[in-house]
Amino acid sequence: MKAVILAAGYQTRLEKDLAALSEEDAPYQILNGRPKALLPLKGGVLLDHLLAQIKNSGIEEIYIVTNGKYYPQFCSWAQGRNFALDHIINDGTLTNEQRKGALVDLELVVRSLPDDLLVVAGDIVFYPHFELKQMVQDYHDNPRPLIAMYQEYGDTSRRGIVEVCNGRVESFIEKPASGTTTSRLASTACYVLPLFAAARLQEYLSQTQTLAERDAPGHFIAWLHTQMPVYAFEIPGRFDFGSLDDYQKMESELSKSELLKIPL
Question: Is residue 93 part of a domain?
Fold first, then answer.
């Protein structure tokens, strides 16, 4: 199994928050112009902690997909981490307006890696008491398409909500309106895709045209579960990181916790 980290976003919401900072928040200006995966986090950057989780699960071959704007920063990070530069893939875009979507970026890797894949968004930080190797081991014990889900106690209209029966995904509703479902199980961008499931990505993309359909990975899962059985693995949760406020809360929470040792 190989791992793919999707990190080609342009974090427009975070940049808007940084542009509106007051003078007393000036220290956070250091975040300007950096991809979310490379923001400082407890002795390293966010990507260091995600890499530690992936390596702890037993996966050594890891690929990162980014964009042309941030590609040089990821290369600089890699040189200090003994991370292979040819495992950093540039999708060729330079602006948010040019972006192709996370699923198109994933397909760049899928077409050249005939293997089972662990796919994770580059801005995910799992709760410290969860280890990704639990989900990977569950897959090895019973190979099948597997998605991470967690109990969402807040607003479900901003999430991909999963309805599950005996562990199998029965429906996947992207950002459901109030009253659409009673499920509180939210999907997060962490999936294990067997080779036979990952190979269907090109078929899905051939049927889509809009950026929205090609951007949120959950749209592929919503389609895939109508083509084959897809199962869910419940995790305690993860930090939802989009805004500056989210980043500050994540910093505060993780300052109290022990994380896996960063593999420098």
Answer: yes
